[in-house]
Design goal:
The complex is a heterodimer. Chain A is an alpha+beta fold. Chain A is built from 5 helices and 18 strands. The longest helix of chain A is centred in the last third of the chain and has 14 residues. The chains are: A alpha+beta, B alpha+beta. At the A-B interface, strand 16, helix 2, helix 4 and helix 5 of A face helix 2, helix 10, helix 11 and helix 13 of B.
Chain lengths: 254, 456
């Protein structure tokens, strides 16, 4: 058993048990799952970690990450495992891209790449009423957010935020192209000030929608330009930052 | 391995649904095909990279066709022959689509696709009479060899039939059955230690080549990928051997094909089959040599490991205070430079491949960009080659820079350390110059290609 702090940035494997970090204030030791603002010194258990009697049990293989949450208490912060996988597991609040597979009564069934299809009410669009239904066809792409994502229940999506605004969500246009990449790459692209996105945006204008379920929708002016972006994004999976910069420099130089 | 897969019990849980194809994907693919563009930067008549690797046992191989992978295993046993054919051995072919290949596949279920593929394999390998079944007879009417070919799809990225037919024939060519002797009534089966196992007698190697048709046959694409298969209107599969004899031809999808089109397809097939046959023979020869010399062979040796570099830790700030101590440390613990970066293609024993296939498809993009400008076609091969060269050149310049202090770099993290040193600055300009050089040489390379095409 190793202390959790010592393992940050290292590879952990399922079954590893990490010792809880030493906590100066005893009351702040309770563990909570998921995100959200944590009080001082509180420890958060992110994806790939589970609390067990002895400490933290690792359930995925990957790199152990740690982030100090605000306040700066020595023992607090969030721990999670950065793992490489392709299969998406719905998480409440995630923005994903789904494909409409069926229209059943007043709900649409969406394929989001999870083990089960998600349901989306036709009322969960901005400005939708019983009279004014959104025009959704089978096969359309929808960018939405998970409202309900439980282990044993059908996930439920919405295309509006809590104030009823669309906030960028809704039906994605008929043009463009959809690709699937690993979840790790999506997280990397969605990171604030992602280098890849910044470098790409200097090439030429294009539209991009990133779903946490590993799907990316791309649209540029021509088929050719779209294909270029698609291939760059797919190639990013297997390149180091160094290689990417080199290749992009070569690309924009031509 | 094959046995356990076959014995998988029907699970109570239903298989996952296959990912549906969205309208925008369909539309985009069709538009791209109209513009004669393909997702991976191939031309309409280009085949994906084919790689053949052999297992440790005889008669076992994996064939990769782009990202499609098929595992083949041949086995044999002595059985009584069929009543109506007492002097002929028995051939048995079986292709299986496991959910490992694509989430939509269910184990042990006879889907329409599976039946169609099995039927095609059978027609390609059995009905073309490529294996001499009479030579499999041990005692007429009593004992014959039954040769069983199991094919497993490991990953599905389109064109299963081509990959399966290549894997099947390679495995059959690679297979050795135990030697037998008949003295009177007594049949002796020799172990490999007693007598060398004997190969099957194979007359020719039939190989399938698939053509996908779009817009009622207006557009034609060779070796369709999974997404192209989903939007195609019709499929034409031609099995041919290198003597240009058509072994099987099948058109599905119900499209009307013009005579010229079929003739054109058969001509393309002849070219592709010649290439693939040569590759197979080279791979078999390579494997034979390695086994004879007692070198390392088998999947563990021949399949290059793919590295995912997305999560690689990058040292953000470099402490330059104790660089010299660090350098000393590196010298003491020096390893040979990591071979992965230097040569992405492993020409290890038991492998052979068409083209220089590495994971990134940078070349293609870059190629397509130029295509816009110069309105010229390129080949991913050429650029992949270039990328590889660039990498090697890069490391070599770095190593040159180290001449004054003989450090052998083993870690990319340490490379950064050295780049940041002030006296190393002039070398930074080097890769750029190399780049330009590369560009010109590539153009020349392309020109050569163009000429070749014109000749063709």
């Amino acid at each position: 058993m190793a202390a959790a702090e010592a393992c940050v940035g290292q590879v952990v494997l399922p079954g590893d048990v990490l010792l809880l970090p030493a906590h100066p204030d005893e009351d702040g030791e309770r563990l909570r799952l998921g995100g959200g603002a944590a009080p001082r010194g509180r420890l958060l258990c992110g994806p790939g970690l589970r609390r067990c009697a002895a400490g933290l049990l690792v359930t995925k293989c990957g790199l152990l990450r740690h982030r100090q949450t605000g306040g700066g208490a020595a023992a607090g912060g969030a721990y999670w495992v950065d793992s490489q996988q392709k299969r998406y597991v719905p998480v409440k609040g995630d923005h994903v891209i789904g494909v409409v597979t069926a229209k059943a009564g007043d709900v649409f069934k969406l394929d989001v790449g999870g083990s089960e299809q998600a349901s989306l009410s036709y009322l969960a669009f901005e400005g939708a009423t019983k009279r004014n239904r959104p025009n959704v066809q089978v096969g359309d792409l929808i960018y939405g957010q998970f409202l309900v994502a439980n282990k044993d229940m059908e996930p439920e999506m919405v295309c509006i935020d809590s104030s009823g605004r669309s906030n960028g969500m809704g039906i994605i246009g008929q043009d463009g192209f959809l690709i699937k990449v690993s979840l790790g790459l999506i997280r990397k692209l969605l990171a604030p000030k992602s280098e890849i996105i910044q470098e790409l945006s200097q090439l030429y204008p294009f539209e991009l929608v990133l779903g946490m379920n590993g799907r990316i929708w791309v649209k540029a002016k021509t088929v050719q330009q779209t294909l270029i972006i698609v291939n760059i994004l797919e190639a990013c999976e297997y390149m180091t930052a160094e290689q990417r910069k080199q290749a992009l420099a070569k690309f924009s130089g031509n | 391995m094959t046995r356990s897969a076959r014995a998988s019990s029907p699970s109570s849980r239903p298989a996952m649904k296959a990912t549906p194809l969205s309208n925008c994907e369909r539309r985009f693919l069709l538009r791209a095909i109209e513009e004669r563009k393909r997702l991976d930067g191939r031309q309409c008549y280009d085949y994906r990279n084919v790689r053949v690797s052999f297992g440790a046992d005889r008669g076992c191989c994996i064939v990769e066709l782009g990202k499609t992978r098929v595992l083949a295993q041949v086995s044999c046993e002595l059985v009584p022959p069929k009543l109506n054919r007492p002097t002929e051995g028995i051939l048995f072919f079986n292709l299986e689509l496991s959910p490992m290949a694509a989430p939509g596949f269910e184990p042990g279920r006879q889907t329409e696709l599976l039946v169609k593929l099995n039927r095609l394999i059978e027609r390609c390998l059995r009905n073309s009479k490529c294996i001499d079944t009479e030579s499999l007879c041990v005692v007429a009417g009593e004992k014959v060899w039954q040769i069983r070919l199991d094919l497993h799809l490991l990953n599905h990225d389109g064109n299963i039939i081509d990959a399966a037919s290549i894997a099947g024939i390679v495995a059959l060519c690679h297979f050795r059955r135990p030697d037998v002797s008949v003295q009177g009534e007594e049949v002796t089966v020799f172990t490999p230690e007693e007598r060398d196992p004997v190969p099957l007698s194979i007359h020719h190697m039939p190989i399938c080549v698939s053509f996908a048709f779009f817009q009622q046959g207006t557009y034609l694409v060779v070796d369709p990928s999974e997404r192209e298969e989903r939007v195609m209107d019709g499929l034409l599969v031609i099995a041919m051997n290198k003597h240009r004899e058509i072994c099987t031809i099948q058109s599905s999808g119900g499209i009307m094909l013009v005579k010229d089109q079929v003739l054109r397809c058969s001509k393309i097939t002849a070219v592709k089959v010649a290439e693939i046959t040569e590759l197979i023979q080279k791979a078999l020869e390579n494997d034979r040599k390695v086994r004879k010399e007692g070198g390392k062979f088998g999947f563990a040796e021949s399949i290059p490991n793919q590295k995912i570099t997305t999560f690689k830790m990058e040292s953000a700030a470099v402490d330059t205070n104790n660089v010299e101590e660090q350098a000393e440390e590196i010298i003491t613990k020096a390893d040979p430079p990591s071979e992965v970066f230097a040569k992405p293609i492993l020409h290890t024993p038991g492998t052979a491949q068409i083209g220089e296939g590495i994971e990134n498809s940078w070349g293609d993009l870059e190629e397509s960009e130029r295509e816009e400008a110069v309105e010229e076609e390129g080949e991913s091969e050429a650029t992949a080659f270039e990328v590889q060269k660039m990498e090697t050149e890069d490391t070599s310049t770095l190593r040159e820079a180290e001449k004054d202090e003989p450090i052998v770099l083993s870690d990319s993290e340490e490379e950064e350390v050295i780049i940041l040193e002030p006296q190393e600055l002039p070398t930074k300009a080097r890769p750029q110059a190399n780049l330009k050089q590369e560009n010109t040489s590539k153009k020349a390379f392309n020109k050569r290609r163009r000429k070749k095409r014109a000749v063709r």
